[in-house]
From TrEMBL:
Gene3D superfamilies: 1.25.40.420, Potassium Channel Kv1.1, Chain A, Vaccinia Virus protein VP39. This is BTB domain-containing protein. It comes from Arcella intermedia. It holds the Pfam family BACK. Residues 233-299, 345-413 form the BTB domain. InterPro entries: BACK, BTB/POZ_dom, SAM-dependent_MTases_sf, SKP1/BTB/POZ_sf. PANTHER family: SPECKLE-TYPE POZ PROTEIN.
């Protein structure tokens, strides 16, 4: 509070008492701010860490919100909530005034990650944000305390007045433990009316429908989890007498040592690591790098990882332990080179009757539930080395394979419908979202009904919701288009049902 003084967060008539250790009433704005010792106690109990995501409910003048922003640093995120525009404006202006007052030679303070919003904390958050720390400046009713607990991330901390006490609630392993800090008296949080809750939920549904969420890439995590995993293991390492299941494809892909080793006619199905300095947990960390480009490097294991990287010719890891990078040698770079390649291939696809596309069972099974089930079903498809693909061109199927191998692809107007159909068939949610995003960016009055029809046909839920909201917003123009007149009756019925639901 020395770094961010209280005087910048009070009205001009209160500046002469800004440093009194007592609550202050802002009569013209109809709210109070707590005494400095209460802010100090709350911040101490919140134990804010750099990078934390913070919620300050009843942020008032914005002082505690700004202090939280200072503690998180610019790598964090701080939200202040209040109920009135003039209070939000007052908070923002206070931070601007404080930053403008700092001497030019003072160490910089970045509060660009501190944001204020006008919203009742008990109304739905459009972003559905979860928080590491929550501070509440008013008394939470008993009927709503669980709502605040639900806003916490795992290991999150909530400090709030509750009844006649100030409490600290900590969430750990899904359970909340409560500690009483001291006796207090605060005014109650304002509860939203049923009508406000209903309107907020309707607006939230509309907001959700007006965006397409593309799932984050998980390809590295998928292969990292393959270390010592019984999905198609065909090789074993023995370290400290313990077996570690592994996969020849990934070993050969990442290391010339293993390419040469497995080409030997006398190559065994196991390799014992006899170096007495090689610990089991360090070797599994070494394998995690081979499988995902990522591993934990510590003072304890760095020398052993360097030894293993040298022995098995894992050059990207050798560069990493030395603080360098090797462009073009990532796992995804090497996967991309395998798309349609016969190198290490153990299965092929027949597309358009005659065209054969080589592929790799391990990558297919790890990346897609569809192929994982196929290769583990015990049926004919699990035994064959050739799979026939119907209803796709070779060009589009290669794009799907490229996505499976890299988690990325290019969606165009020429391939979008076909890729959406294939994404739905092969249960590729991220690829489906890429296609939905393409139509999201290219919708207009003329094609809106056509997009809705496509979304309905291929179970593209996000796109269907968005197309409907677009149609509702442009209903007069859309209903006279040819694409709307060509809609199936079932789709028109779904529009009418959604319209009735929105009007309730």
């Amino acid at each position: 509070m020395i770094v961010i003084p209280r005087e910048y967060f009070v009205t001009p008539d209160l500046k002469n008492v800004a440093y009194n250790d007592c609550p202050l009433r802002f009569p013209k704005m109809a709210f109070n701010i707590s005494a400095p010792h209460m802010y100090a106690l709350c911040l101490e109990k919140l134990n804010i860490q750099p990078g934390n995501v913070i919620l300050d409910i009843g942020s008032g003048s914005g002082h505690l919100t700004a202090l939280a922003g200072y503690l998180t640093g610019p790598g964090g995120l701080v939200h202040g909530l209040d109920l009135f525009d003039y209070i939000i404006e007052f908070s923002n202006q206070n931070i601007k005034n404080f930053l403008a007052s700092r001497p030019k030679d003072a160490p910089p303070i970045d509060l660009s990650h501190v944001h204020f919003f006008k919203r009742n904390c008990f109304l739905p958050d459009p972003e559905e944000t979860k928080y590491d720390r929550i501070h509440v400046g008013c008394c939470c009713p008993e009927s709503r305390i669980n709502y605040l607990y639900d806003l916490l991330k795992p290991d999150g901390i909530l400090v709030t007045p509750f009844g006649d006490k100030l409490i600290k609630a900590t969430k750990k392993n899904g359970q909340v433990t409560v500690e009483t800090l001291l006796a207090v008296r605060y005014s109650d949080l304002t509860l939203p009316s049923d009508a406000e809750i209903k309107d907020a939920k309707k607006l939230l549904d509309i907001a959700k429908a007006n965006k397409i969420i593309v799932p984050q890439t998980v390809i590295r995590e998928q292969f990292r989890n393959l270390v010592d995993n019984p999905i198609f293991p065909d090789f074993v390492f023995i370290v400290e007498g313990k077996k570690v299941m592994a996969h020849r494809l990934l070993l050969k892909l990442r290391s010339k040592f293993f390419v040469d080793y497995f080409s030997r006619p006398d190559a065994a199905d196991f390799l014992e690591i006899s170096d007495t300095n090689c610990k089991f947990h360090i070797f599994t960390e070494f394998l995690r790098f081979i499988y995902s480009d990522n591993c934990m490097i510590t003072d304890e294991n760095v020398d052993q990882l360097r030894f293993l990287a040298n022995r098995f010719e894992i050059l990207p890891l050798l560069a990493k332990v030395d603080g360098k990078e090797m462009p073009g040698c990532t796992l995804i770079d090497q996967f991309e080179k395998l798309v349609g390649s016969e190198e290490f291939s153990d299965v092929s696809f027949t597309v358009e009757g005659t065209k054969s596309i080589p592929s790799h069972k391990l990558i297919l099974a790890v990346r897609t539930e569809y192929f994982h089930r196929m290769f583990n079903s015990g049926l004919r498809e699990s035994q064959t080395n050739n799979i026939t693909i119907f209803d796709s061109t070779a060009e589009n199927f290669k794009i799907v394979l490229h996505f499976i191998y890299t988690d990325h692809c290019t969606v165009t107007s020429e391939n979008c419908v076909d890729l959406l159909e294939l994404a739905n068939f092969f249960q590729l949610d991220r690829l489906k979202a890429f296609c939905e995003k393409y139509w999201f960016d290219n919708i207009n009055v003329s094609n809106a009904a056509h997009i809705l029809s496509i979304a309905d046909r291929f179970n593209a839920v996000q796109l269907k919701d968005f197309a409907m909201e677009f149609i509702f917003s442009h209903i007069q123009e859309v209903v006279v288009t040819d694409s709307f007149k060509e809609l199936d009756q079932s789709v028109v019925t779904s529009i009418l049902i959604r319209s009735v639901q929105r009007s309730k």
